[in-house]
Amino acid sequence: MPTDDLRLSEQYKAIIHADFDAFYASVEQRDYPELNGKPVVVGGKPENRGVVASASYEARTFGIRSAIPMSRAYRLCPQLVRRPARFEIYRSVSSKVMDIFRSITPLVESLSLDEAYLDVTECETSEITPPLIAQALRKRVWDELSLTISVGVGTSKCVSKIASDMNKPDGITVVRPGTERQFLSPLPVQSIWGIGPKTMERLNSYGINTIGELAIRDISWFESNFGSNGRSVRNMCLGEDPRPVITHRQRKSFSSETTLVDDSEDPEILREIVIRLSNDVGVSLSSRGVRGKTVKLKLRSSDFVTVTRQRSVTEPVQLSSEIADIAIDLLSQELNQKNSYRLIGVGVSGFDSLENSQDAMQLRLEGF
Ligand code: DCP
Ligand code: MG
Ligand code: MG
Predict the structure, then answer these.
(1) N or C: which end of the chain has fewer CB within 10 A?
(2) Could you read off the pLDDT of 203-242 as tens digits, one per residue?
(3) Could you give the residue numbers annotated as active site?
C-alpha cells in the first residue's frame, strides 16, 4: 500500500477538549451586558462564608480564583461585582453546548457542565483536519450561545485537556501528532492528571519540577512512587493516554472529588465539601436523566490511606439532596476515627438504563 494513502487518523486518535471560559461568570456577563469588562464573580455571600465558584478574567487580574473565600475576593478587589449562581441557566447552556458537540460527533464525553472531550478521529478527511473542526466548533458556540470556549486538540485525552488550558480565554492550542513529549516537557508536574499539590511538593523536593524531568525516570521508579498508578502516570508524561472517550450511555458511574487546600478534620468543613460534591454528581445525573442505586464516599487521610464506603438503596437516587443525605451519613460514621483528610470524593453507580430512568422520572413527575 502506498504510504501517502495513510491518513494520520489511522495511526493517531484525534481528541478535542473544549471548556467554557469563566463559565458561570461569562453567562452572567452575557445576560447582563452592564457587567462586561468588569471584575465579576459568581458565588455565595461573604457574610455567609460564601466561596467564589467562577471569576471573570477581569477579576482574575486581582488574584481572584475559584474556591477562594468571597470575603477574601472583596479584599483583593473592593469594586468586585458578585452575582448569585443561576444553576438552571448554566444547566440549560450546558445542554445546548453538548448538543452542538454531538452534532459534530456522537463520541462526546462530558466531564462537567462546562467541558467535554470529543473524539473526532472519524470526522477527519484530507481537507477537514482536527484543528479546522476545533475552529468551526468555537465559531458555532460563539454564534449560537454568545460564549467563548477554549479548545485543545491532541492525540489523547490527557494532552488535549492540558492543551485547552494553555491559551485561555478564547484560545486554541494544537499539539501535532508526534510532538506530545516536546509539548509536555517544560510544563509543571501538576499539569498531569492525578498529580495534586501534595504530590507536586514531594516531587519538587526530589528536584523534579517539570514533566520532562519526571518522564526520564524508569518504570520501577514510577511504580515505587505512584504504586499501581505508576504505569499510567509514566505513560501520560510521555504523552500516551489510551483512555477512550466514553459517552454517558456507556458510563457506569458519575463521581466528583476534590483535594483539600489544607487537610481538615473539621466535621463542618468536611460536610460542606460532601454537599458540594453531591451537588456536582446530582447535576451530572439530573442533566442526563440517570438515577443510581449505590452512593460511594471516598476519603483519603493525611497519611495517604484511602477508604471507600458505599451504600446501596432500593429507591434509586438522582437529586443532589438525596445523594448528600447518604454521603453525609457515610461520612458521619467515619468521623469517629478522628482522622484528618486530604481528599474527598462522592460517586453514584448502579444505574437504571437511561430509558427506564426517564420513564421512572416521568412517573414521579406525574405524581405516581
Ligand atoms: N466551579 C465551582 N467550584 C469550583 C470550580 C468550578 O463551582 N471550585 C464551577 C464554576 C465554573 C464551572 O464550575 O464556572 C466550570 O469550572 P472551570 O474549572 O472550567 O472554571 P471556569 O469555567 O469558571 O474558568 P476557566 O476559564 O478557567 O475554565
Ligand atoms: Mg471552564
Ligand atoms: Mg471546566
Answers:
(1) N
(2) 999 999 999 999 999 999 999 998 888 999 999 999 999 9
(3) 115
